[in-house]
Amino acid sequence: MRLRGHWAGEEAGLFRVMAENEEYAGYVSALVAEHRELDAFLAALDLDDPAQRTAFVRAVDELHEHIAKEEDGLFPASLTELTGDQWDLAMSAWSTVHGRPVAPAGTTDAGA
What we know:
Blueprint: H1 2-19, H2 22-44, H3 50-81, H4 84-98
């Protein structure tokens, strides 16, 4: 499932670096818990069951709320909180999970 790979990149990279700050540790922990809850739900999902289809629609709505917590909360906070070295660490971890090179801060070439 593509979500697992996406979550792994977030958790190994930006989430881990942001959680080092006490101010954001609880926020990050809650986001990780939401990843786990949705993962367990999707793994057990039976779309042939009408009740589970209804639950799936609710889960998609909750996913939109989760994404908003990231994009409107944690990600903007990271722009003001992280140093260049912390960004490099977060992006390096993301790259390792996804097998894609990420250019270090101050460069324009991903192969640099």
